[in-house]
Amino acid sequence: NAGVTQTPKFRILKIGQSMTLQCAQDMNHNYMYWYRQDPGMGLKLIYYSVGAGITDKGEVPNGYNVSRSTTEDFPLRLELAAPSQTSVYFCASRAKGQGAVNEQFFGPGTRLTVL
Amino acid sequence: QQPVQSPQAVILREGEDAVINCSSSKALYSVHWYRQKHGEAPVFLMILLKGGEQKGHEKISASFNEKKQQSSLYLTASQLSYSGTYFCGTEKSQYGAGSYQLTFGKGTKLSVIP
């Protein structure tokens, strides 16, 4: 199992550009998440999905969009990039509990800089 | 609301013990602990469940006080490899089960020196 994979690892964008951060998992997990991590602030939830075709906003969704057409993939779209979106982005997945509480698995992260 | 972690940072010598605390203002279903090394993704350590169950790491223990909505992570006989930033992630109770969303604290930076 590759676990949770993310591409790209690094990216520099100019203000106003758009891009898609890719995330995939091969563990057949129902739940998937996108977080951003700024220095000293912990992880903030951007969007999450409870299954294919179902997504919902987290704590900091403005400026982002997501889709989930398959169980495996959960891309994050940035439209009109702004310097405030400079951050490290982590994708995570979690199995649906069958009478148990399961841990979240994190991808390696994407470091994005907007100049 | 973001859980509050304390202390913000701690420096230990090898072999010393440390306690990291996590406190929430909301009714919790579970508390998850992660460790993150610089430039890497968070790595799972421990889950504490409402009702007292736990699963996780052999050399690290934790507790969960449901009445106070507080969890503590105990690191004993610290090793150099324990260095990193520790995060708690809290999961709210929702209709008697978990909400499947974690809210993370700001982290506690642990440095272990020889």
Task: Give a short summary of the structure.
The complex is a heterodimer of chains A (115) and B (114). Chain A has 115 residues and is mainly β. Chain A has no helices and 11 strands.
Question: Which characteristics define this entry?
Answer:
heterodimer; A: 115 residues; mainly beta; seven-stranded mixed beta sheet; four-stranded antiparallel beta sheet; B: 114 residues; elongated
Structure description:
The complex is a heterodimer of chains A (115) and B (114). With 115 residues, chain A is mainly beta. The relative contact order of chain A is 0.34. In chain B, strands 2, 4, 5, 6, 9, 10 and 11 form a 7-stranded mixed β-sheet that branches. Chain B has a 4-stranded antiparallel β-sheet with strand order 1-3-8-7, with no helix packed on it. Helices cover 0% and strands 61% of the residues of chain B. Chain B has 114 residues and is mostly beta strands. Chain B contains no helices and 11 strands. The chains are: A mainly beta (115), B mainly beta (114). At the A-B interface, strand 4, strand 5 and strand 10 of A face strand 4, strand 5, strand 9 and strand 10 of B.
The biggest beta sheet of chain A is recorded as: 7 strands, mixed
Overall strand count of chain B: 11
CA-CA gap between termini of chain A: 36 Å
Low-confidence stretches of chain A: none
H/E element order of chain A: EEEEEEEEEEE
Mean pLDDT, all residues of chain A: 94
Strand content of chain B: over 45%
> Quaternary status of these chains?
heterodimer
Main interface by residue count: A-B, 25 and 23 residues
The total beta strand count of chain A reads 11
Query: Runs of chain B with pLDDT <50, length 5+?
Result: none
Number of helical segments with 4 or more residues of chain B: 0
Principal-axis shape of chain B equals elongated
* Largest sheet properties of chain B: 7 strands, mixed
Alpha-carbon Rg of chain B, integer: 14 Å
Shape of chain A: globular
**Fraction of helical residues of chain A:** under 10%
End-to-end separation of chain B in angstroms reads 37 Å
Q: What order do the helices and strands of chain B follow?
A: EEEEEEEEEEE
